[in-house]
Amino acid sequence: MADLLSGRACRYGDRIYRRPKGKPVIAADNQAVISDVTAQLKRALGTQTPRLTPTMEDRLARLSELMADSSRLSEQVSAELDARAATARKLHEEAKQAEALASVNREQAEAVRRLLEADISEKLAESCKAIQRNDRRDAIRIAAAGFIAGAGGDASDHTSRASPALTP
User: Fold this and answer.
1) Total tally of structural domains belonging to the chain
2) pTM score, two decimals?
3) What are phi and psi of 163, to 5 degrees?
4) Does the residue 79 lie in any domain?
5) Per-residue pLDDT tens for 88-130?
6) Residue 67 pLDDT
7) Are residues 86 and 94 in contact, defined by beta-carbon separation less than 8 angstroms?
8) How far apart are CA 161 and CA 141, in angstroms?
9) In which domain, by residue range, is 17 found?
10) Is 92 part of any domain?
11) Which residues have C-beta within 8 Å of that of residue 17, sequence separation ≥ 6?
12) DSSP, residue by residue, 111-133
């Protein structure tokens, strides 16, 4: 503790560093801190010192990792494209089926229209024939009624027509 108070030592964290003879306290502080940090790094990393530039082996290993990642990504993209192509083919087939169904529906609708048209024409023709028959019957009835009314009226009518001299 006396060295700290006298300026011959300094404290860094929980350690006390003494200055070498002939050096100022600040230089001793810096030198002690640097050597302490270096020792701690060596213990943490083992005996290896960190390299500033990667070696050829490191770069090749990194390239291999990148190429493997690229291969996985290209496989994923290829699988996605295949899935989309399958979906497109499925949609195309469904569109064809829908078009065929629409064509069948159009044909069925046309057949129903023709059937209804023929049925309506037939009913209309039957109705016209019935009206014509009824008109003929009515005409015959009217003619018969007119004949009966005009020719077969009362006796005075007959006598007046038969002999004009008999009429008063």
Assistant:
1) 1
2) 0.35
3) -140, 115
4) no
5) 999 999 999 999 888 888 888 888 889 889 889 888 888 888 8
6) 95
7) no
8) 25
9) 2-45
10) no
11) 9, 10, 11, 28, 29, 32, 33, 36
12) HHHHHHHHHHHHHHHHHHHHHHH
